[in-house]
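Audit log entry. Action: structure prediction of a protein-small molecule complex. Ligand: flavin-adenine dinucleotide. The ligand was supplied as SMILES and no pocket hint was given, so placement is left entirely to the predictor. Protonation state taken as written. Sequence taken verbatim from the request; no trimming, no tag removal. Recorded inputs:
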Amino acid sequence: MAGRPVILIVDDEHASLAAMHEALTRRFGADYRVVAGSSGAEGLVLLEGMKAGGEDVALIVADQWMPGMEGNAFLTRSLALAPGAKRILLVAWGDRTASHTILRGCALGDLDNYLYKPWTPPEVHLYPLVNEFLAEWTRIYRPAMELVRVVGNRHSPRSNEIRELLIRHFVPYGFYDSESEGAARLLQARGLEPRPEPIVILVDGSALVDPSNAELSDALGGSAADHVCDVAVVGAGPAGLAAAVYAASEGLRTLVVERYAVGGQAGASSLIRNYLGFPRGITGTELAQRAYEQAWLFGAKYVFAREVVGLRAHGTERILTLSDGRELVARAVVVATGARYRQLGVPAIDRSEGRSVFYSTFIEQEFVRDLELAVVGGGNSAGQAAVYLARFAKRVTLIVRANTLAKGMSNYLVRQVRHLPNIDVRLGSEVVDADGPVRIERLSVRGPDGKVETIPARLVFVLIGASPHTDWLAGTVERDDRGYLLTGRNVTTTSANVRSPLSFETSMPGVFAIGDVRYGGLPRVASAVGDGAMVARQIHEYLEQEAGTLDEVLVEMPEAEEDLACPARF
Ligand SMILES: Cc1cc2nc3c(=O)[nH]c(=O)nc-3n(C[C@H](O)[C@H](O)[C@H](O)COP(=O)(O)OP(=O)(O)OC[C@H]3O[C@@H](n4cnc5c(N)ncnc54)[C@H](O)[C@@H]3O)c2cc1C
């Protein structure tokens, strides 16, 4: 029995508890120890025992309506005893109050997902979802297949960067702390000496000592050597991946250049809950991986771990310079390089990104209802966020570094902020720390007098600006004063161009901007993907108008690729 991770079910209704225990034991019993508890209190005792016995808990399912301790309260308390377990709330079909509890619980990091009861037949309503939850847990805690092995110091930042890169690329790997016996055995078997730098052992047994991201990516076979394409997409976030899917599926030779890993900002999101068609949410890594594979199947190729550092026009050709000195020649370019939200640089805040800390207010109202929140920032976006959140929240503390709101905020917003009784403005103040027993509950704020005060805040919205990744386009393509790329009607400098730019086209004909990097772009995964779909159509239009007919473009393609890449034409 020892060694099998635990699935814990807690429900006060005896018949439903017994049925789920039986169903899960039947399906998962060989690999998991399925345990049942009939109340929150009993569940906590069971978890304490598991913790004391060193058992891994993979999944906790708790019924919402239990006397004494409701399911969501139990799941919150279970965090301290089994922090890695997936926490699932069991709710009744038709329970109208459930969505509020689920959304709030997910926003606060108290639970990961939900199941409905009754769930018969289990093949339809229970097993597929439990399988998914267990797969997510296993991916993190029980990676069995090791295509790559990393030997390194577990505290070394570079070791951790390499691990993150492998995770973001969905490469199954094993990590061996350099002090461990396993690491010594691995190195000895290959005649390698221990080193302070990380060593990566590949599936063919060859080893890379302290590889750069580019060396690692090339060794894993991730990068194409192509120099010529119809469309070069810069950036493999949701916008770039969507552009690649649609451009490649519509028959254009598509090359995606990404300086780091697929997924962009979305790839760093632990759960995207507001993307159409995923009511239970989807991790950013999973969404990105699916899109990456989809574009690849349609014929798109990738160059990873290279940054695009320059762009120039030569007749109808658009030439991109990569950080390794290579040049790519494209007929059209899609810039999908996104933006980076400025962080506070307070470790406790930065660590809670996506759980208690957000960089925009795309969060649903239900998440914030009746909570005490903090908004950090003194610009219009912070002011708008405070006003919007104050409609639902119990109290919003607006923390502003400047000594006056008028310095960064429009007049009308200053009036609104001042007018709302549940917005508390702290001027000349900055966040210096955050804490809470399990997740953020309080902020330490240093005021103008230098004194540090604690304020309650269950969610923190950091709105201190974003920087689009466009420095490499300075002086080449028109940007606004914050660096966002102007497109369509917003372009003012189309001097040599006889026609107006298409709606996603920048000041350089044939160069398009989509997603977060575009002026006016909405920072959402869905809008980035929508931009990607639409830009493919505009590239066709551009190529037809500016660089010959579409037929000519397709004729140039090798036959095999054309077959694979053109389902839209049949
Ligand atoms: C923590 C977090 C959680 C979020 N959660 C949600 C959510 O739940 N729902 C939602 O709708 N939105 C969410 N967002 C917002 C959403 O992720 C972004 O709006 C979306 O990712 C924008 O997509 P993009 O492709 O335009 O840019 P990005 O995702 O930023 O991707 C840009 C890519 O370009 C690459 N790149 C940059 N410069 C270069 C260069 N010179 N050469 C090559 N490559 C380059 C970057 O490495 C990156 O991979 C979240 C954002 C964050 C930060």
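Audit: result stored. Residues 234-240, 257-260, 264-266, 268-269, 272-274, 307-308, 336-338, 341, 353-354, 359, 362, 469, 472, 515-517, 523-526, 528 surround flavin-adenine dinucleotide (CB under 6 Å). Confidence is low (pLDDT under 50) at residues 549-570.
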